[in-house]
Write a sequence for this structure.
């Protein structure tokens, strides 16, 4: 009885997966109109780190066909007396937005990116990464 139920369950899963593969075109976005944000640094082979001073951060908006605005906020380390740094909303250009921050204190800064489709609308995508700043 138990073996029969397992076989039936396996067969049902197989049939459903075959139907899903048959009706989903290759490369189709499984969640239409979903925006993803990712960070880009000059050296993608190493962990993100920077010395005190200016540093540019690029946010990629995926898929690239979307226009909208991105802003970034660098949240200062909890043990520092530094203020958060804000790069105000700017238009996405070729699927990217870039901000330059002048980090003043050492520690781990949390970089928050926010995407909105049009000015003064709600934020519909966010991403967070950490950036270690040291001398």
């Amino acid at each position: 009885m138990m073996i029969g139920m397992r076989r039936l369950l396996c067969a049902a899963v197989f049939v459903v997966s075959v139907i899903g593969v048959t009706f989903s075109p290759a490369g189709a976005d499984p969640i239409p109109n979903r925006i993803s944000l990712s960070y880009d640094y000059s050296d993608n082979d190493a962990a993100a780190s920077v010395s005190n001073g200016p540093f540019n951060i690029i946010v990629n908006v995926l898929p690239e066909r979307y226009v909208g605005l991105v802003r970034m906020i660098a949240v200062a380390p909890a043990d520092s007396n530094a203020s958060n740094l804000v790069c105000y909303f700017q238009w996405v250009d070729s699927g990217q937005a870039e901000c330059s921050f002048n980090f003043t204190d050492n520690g781990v800064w949390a970089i928050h990116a926010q995407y909105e489709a049009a000015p003064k609308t709600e934020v519909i995508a966010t991403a967070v990464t950490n950036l270690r700043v040291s001398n």
